[in-house]
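Hello forum,

I keep getting stuck at the same step: I have a sequence, I want structure tokens, and every attempt I make locally crashes halfway through. Rather than fight my setup again tonight, could one of you with a working pipeline run this one for me? It's a single chain of 280 residues.
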Amino acid sequence: MRLKGKVALITGAASGIGAAAVERFLAEGCSVCLCDIQDDAGEALAERLGEQTMYVHCNVTREDSVAAAIDAAIERFGQLDILFNSAGIVGAVGPVATTPGDEWRFSIEVLLNGAFYCTKHAARVMQPRRTGSIINMASTAGLMGGLGPHAYTAAKHGVVGLTKNVACELAGSNVRVNAIAAASMATPMVANVLTGDPGNIEKAKEMLGEASPLRGRPGLAEDVANAALWLASDESGYTTGHTLTTDAGFTIGATTEGPAFAEYQPMIREAGQAGLPDQD
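Reply #2:
Ran it on my machine without issues. Output:
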């Protein structure tokens, strides 16, 4: 019961990482407001999980929709302690020279501006209470280049920067702001990219497990949900402005093959000489 008595609002809550976080938070005693544009899936999930949840239609590209969702959560549960900005899309895909401007703009609206709107209105209600945890969904594509489409990568770098900057502002109000940078998670969005079918999670797990630096271990939505749980809980009470990776070590250079020079050989010295120098 690490979140007992707390209230969370989770965007993108109808499927994937968001839905996993809803169930994880609920199991730890939290009341949860599920927000999404997938109304049928969101309403069904809230109905299945019971009275400690509610579903609110929320389009994160519209500030008025975000503000209304946060107000609805407070009206139902009386407070807001946790925000998890999990809503996301792959967005515009393709070479920079041919990326349509309208697709670029919409991608940024969902992935970056949506996080801003949610953070803005969560801060509005958290600062007066002088408590709260805001968690932004970033990506390893927000820490490195070459991992995702241009709009997605630019937006996720922006999310990491937004996280750090807002953490500096809100620290004095005891509101913490952190991010999670995930890589290659077996979610419907990734399954669709890998297999063409968002429902083929098992095939995605198999493919991701084969490519994982942690041999045979794919990334799961539950891995991100567990990271979000720690950032949401008082256990991370001295942590703010941090981007926590759930990536099997990819961003530190871990690979399926292992590091270079993994096998023993005599040490290499100057001018191609090997072994320890003569000590005489």
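DSSP finds eight helices and nine strands in the chain. If your local run keeps crashing, start a new thread with the error log.
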